[in-house]
Amino acid sequence: MHTVSDGNGGVDDVDVTGSGRYVRIYGTARGTGWGYSLYEFGVYS
């Protein structure tokens, strides 16, 4: 599991170990007045 609580809206590369079937993105605070924006997300092995 990996948590980012101080993101700046830029690119975040996260290296993790282990295996799993699902990836969850859980937003805890709005980045804008309109809500969340996720432009691209990828998982690579």
TrEMBL record:
Q: Which domain of life is it from?
A: Bacteria
InterPro entries the record matches: Galactose-bd-like_sf
Q: What is this protein called?
A: Uncharacterized protein
